[in-house]
Amino acid sequence: MTDTPTQLFIGGAWVDAADGATMPVDDPATGEILCHVADAGPKDARLAEDAAVQAQEEWARTAPRVRSEILRRAYEIILERTDELAHLMTAEMGKPLAEARGEVAYAAEFFRWFSEEAVRIDGGLATLPDGRNRMLLSRRPVGPCLLITPWNFPLAMGTRKIGPAVAAGCTMVLKPAPQTPLSSLALAAILKEAGLPDGVLNVVTTSRAAEVCEPLLRGGQIRKLSFTGSTAVGRLLLAQCADTVVRTSMELGGNAPFIVFEDADLDKAVDGAMVAKMRNMGEACTAANRFFVHASVAEEFGRRLAERMGALVVGPGTRDGVDVGPLIDRTGRAKVEELVADAVERGARVLVGGRTPEGPGCYYPPTVLTDVAPDSRLMDTEIFGPVAAILTFDDEDEVVRRANDTPWGLVGYVFTEGLDRALRVSERLEAGMVGLNTGLVSNPAAPFGGVKQSGLGREGGRVGIDEYLEYQYLAVPVR
Predict the structure, then answer these.
(1) What is the pTM of this model?
(2) CA-to-CA distance for 55 and 11, rounded, in angstroms?
(3) Backbone φ, ψ for residue 435 (5° rounding)
(4) Nearest to 49 by CA among 213, 236, 247
(5) DSSP labels, 111-132
(6) How do residues 396-451 score in pLDDT, each as one tens digit?
(7) Keyword annotations for this protein (predicted)?
(8) Contact, 392 vs 294, CB < 8 A?
(9) Which CATH architecture has domain 256-443?
């Protein structure tokens, strides 16, 4: 912790907030304060914006190979510091060290992926149909970007946005979540060490998000917003972007259905459920939220899942043998408690868990509920906790209708051994991603994003860099 930056990163320099304000960073495992970091205000945001704007023209002209090699060096540094970054992430966010190490590898891979994409930005040349002009297409960086990241994957969500921006030639202002600013500050230090020019990346940590972000979006100099967070906040940001027609990519909330058909391999289904539900203590937008299990296998599936969930060890993420760390804060835990209580009041049975432990920290036990009423609040709320709610169904049309009966459409999971059914149901699901007989869909080489109120655009994969590029068409007369 002593070597971790705690100041703002603006124009390549570490600086205090203009008004001297700081904010605490808490350890969710104990409730104690880890440290204080600079708490940026509107003046700091303007300075960060100015630095990004001033650096944009020269950075856009930088050779793709140079941008590529900076990302590659940053990738290598991240991997070299896996343990250091994992401990930092566990301290501020709570996830077990094994998961934190996994996130470090996942985060680094975005830099390696986009280091390779940086040198593959292409255009085109063609004669137009009337034969009078040639069409020369080139791709150019969209310009200065505002990147807003969440607390649940504090390192990977930074690299997933910074990687394509650097590769495309865009400068940035990054605003991390106030709960987990340290991972972003460490990432800025790594990029500076890797050779990123001053002003290309600027990091403003703040507890005053509205005061910092709204003037940037309405000011006319920021040309792109990339946001990962709740749908409610996403709507507000989209409205703020309208005044100056800021380009947006939004990765918003989810309400993922997990469908288990009668012919599913239950071993695979339970394994998949453990990943889809318990990755990151359930604090993931891809987390399985609603478990629809065919009536003929629901009891057996519930028994096996409860057995597996009940065997998980809950405790501080730094302790050996711990599988489940604390939730991010007491507000997050209170939400989970209320959702479980509501489901039980409406008739749900608790197969395992369901009771908040006494003592310090923001812990909640892995919980399995069955006989969940369809009108329970957790059916239309993103739980963001280690709670699996099981409902039964009888036929395919019914479960597809119920799975799609939500304003969100980020991801769905389907478990069946029938190929025709697997493809048919996957195609009918209103989701940007589908896990077929697997509980994990995230991969830097795949396009991540949803439909409906789960967002706009895609991050990662070959299309991830497109969000940071504009086409320019040049008409050249044929002579």
Answers:
(1) 0.97
(2) 9
(3) -95, 115
(4) 213
(5) HHHHHHHGGG---EEEE-TTSS
(6) 999 999 999 999 999 999 999 999 999 999 999 999 999 999 999 999 999 999 99
(7) Oxidoreductase
(8) yes
(9) 3-Layer(aba) Sandwich (3.40)
- Tell me the pLDDT tens digit for each residue of 9-67: 999 999 999 999 999 999 999 999 999 999 999 999 999 999 999 999 999 999 999 99
Question: For 283, left (φ over 0), alpha (ψ -120 to 50), or beta?
Answer: beta
CA distances 53 to 32, 60, 352, 411, Å, are: 38, 11, 54, 36
Shared fold status for 8-252+454-475 and 256-443: no
Distances in Å between the Cα of 419 and the Cα atoms of 257, 260, 266 are 19, 14, 16
Closest CA to 392 of 370, 407, 408, 363: 370
* Separation of first and last alpha carbons in the chain: 66
Q: How far apart are CA 36 and CA 14, in angstroms?
A: 15
Length of the chain: 479
The tokens describing 365, both together, are 């036990």
Is CATH 3.40.50.410 what the domain over 8-252+454-475 is classified as, yes or no?
Answer: no
- The residues, ordered by sequence, that sit 6+ positions from 51 with a Cβ below 8 Å of its Cβ are 10, 11, 12, 171, 198, 199, 202
- Annotated active-site positions, please? 251
Q: Which two tokens stand for residue 323?
A: 């599988």
Tell me the percentage of the chain whose pLDDT exceeds 90.
99
Cα–Cα dist 145/59, whole Å: 13
Name the 3-class secondary structure at 474: strand
Compute the distance between CA of residue 407 and CA of residue 213 in angstroms, rounded to an integer: 26
Q: Which pair of structure tokens corresponds to residue 64?
A: 């793709």
* Tens of pLDDT, residues 228-281: 999 999 999 999 999 999 999 999 999 999 999 999 999 999 999 999 999 999
Q: Do 380 and 406 contact (CB within 8 A), yes or no? A: yes
Distance CA 198, CA 186 (A): 16
Spatial separation of the C-alpha atoms in residues 203 and 359, rounded to whole Å: 35
Burial class (CB in 10 A: 0-12, 13-18, 19+), 218: middle
Q: Which residues pair with 411 in a beta bridge?
A: 433
Q: How far apart are CA 14 and CA 90, in angstroms?
A: 24
| 97-117 and 64-80 helices, crossing angle to 10° | 170
> What residues does each domain of the chain span?
8-252+454-475, 256-443
